[in-house]
Structures are given as C-alpha cells and as structure tokens.
Amino acid sequence: MAGPTAAEAAPFLARLTRLDPDALVRLRPAGPDRVVLWGRVPWGVLVTRTVPGGAVGDVSVGAAALLRSLTDGDGTLPPSRDRDWRWPLPPGPGQVIEALPGSEVRRLGTAAARTLREARGRVGERALRDALLEYVPIVVTAGDKKIEIRQGLVQAVLRMAFMSTDSVGDVTVRVAGTWVGLAAEYGSVWLQNTPSLAIHVAK
Asked: Whose CA is closest to 25, among 47, 6, 5?
C-alpha cells in the first residue's frame, strides 16, 4: 500500500513525534493524489495536514515508524495500529467564522510560552501550564453565539509550525458541529467541545 511522500509529510511527523515520541498518525484518502494526516498533541488537540501521496485507506500507524520509513526506508506503511486510535474526527472542513491576523495569533501564543518558560522549575508549574492551555485569549461571534478559542489551539498551531514564519497570512476560525478549529497556511488544529457546550452557528 502506498502512502504519503516524504517532502511534506516528514516535517509534520517530525514535529508530532517531538511533542510525543509515541504519537499515532491516522492517514485518510483525500483524492487520487492526496493524503490527510491526523495526529493528536499531548494536550488533546487534533492536528492535521493534507500532503501529496498515493492510494491509501483509512489506517492508523505509529508516527515515528512512518517517519523512519519515509526518510530512511522505502516509504511503505508500517504495521497498522488502528485499535490504538481512540479519538473522533471533525465531520468536515467546517464553516469559516472569522479570519484572525496571523501576527496577533503568534503574539498571543508567544506570550503564553514566555510565561511558561519563566515559571519553569517553580512549584505549581504544571498547574500553570494546564491553566494556560485552557485559557481563552480569543472570542469570536457568530450571530448570537460566542466561540471561544483556547490557548491550547493557538499553541498547537505554533508548535506544529502551521503558520508561515513571517505571520503575514490570516488564520481562520472554523466550526464543524461541536468542533472548533484554527486553519493556517500549513495545517489545521481542532478541539471538540463537550456536548453541553455544543456550538450552533446562526445562518
């Protein structure tokens, strides 16, 4: 079975395994010559990127094993680990609600990361990290609904390097059912709200 090509898939896999050496990656077809890669960062946000690739079914494999196969091997898919993938996916690309300046998204994420660095080694560092990831630095509205963008989404965009280095482009806020996402130049990140916090976008 063919899979993604190394040029665009390898950076995604390298960043994902840097955050979690045991991460899984789920591959899904996206047309005749495209493959969608899905992963999950340690703080629960799903990350995804569409890359060139040959025919592939819906299969989950070890991200590190796939990275090794693409960079040092023959590019074949590692053994399936479908039973280990336990997370639902958004139902689609979602509806664009707002466009945020990339520079502002980077500023908010960099400020939070700086706060964590300054707290490194102190008592309560973990509690501070968890609180920062749950903090809501951005709120956008759709009709009479408010959509909260948690810092965990912002950090996922930055840590996966989905934004261009100059931060010129916009980052779009998307909603798909109970999911809220940020879509940047090189990939998207998604977080599902609990059923009690489901978002309904006014049309």
From this structure: 47
Q: What residues contact residue 197 under an 8 Å CB cut-off, 6+ apart? A: 178
Supply 89's token pair.
Answer: 């996916």
CB 15 within 8 A of CB 161: yes
DSSP-assigned letters across all residues of 102-148: HHHHHHHHHHHHHHHHHHTTSTTHHHHHHHHHH---EEEEETTEEEE
Q: What is the pLDDT of residues 163-197, one digit of tens each?
A: 988 877 899 999 999 999 999 999 999 999 864 34
Q: pTM for this structure?
A: 0.90
Q: Which long-range contacts (CB under 8 A, 24 or more apart) does 27-31 make?
A: 27/3, 27/53, 27/56, 27/57, 27/58, 27/59, 27/60, 27/61, 27/77, 28/56, 28/58, 29/55, 29/56, 29/57, 29/58
69-73, 126-130, 148-152, 197-201: least confident range: 197-201
- How do residues 116-144 score in pLDDT, each as one tens digit? 888 777 868 889 999 999 999 999 988 88
Q: How many CB atoms lie within 10 A of CB 164?
A: 13
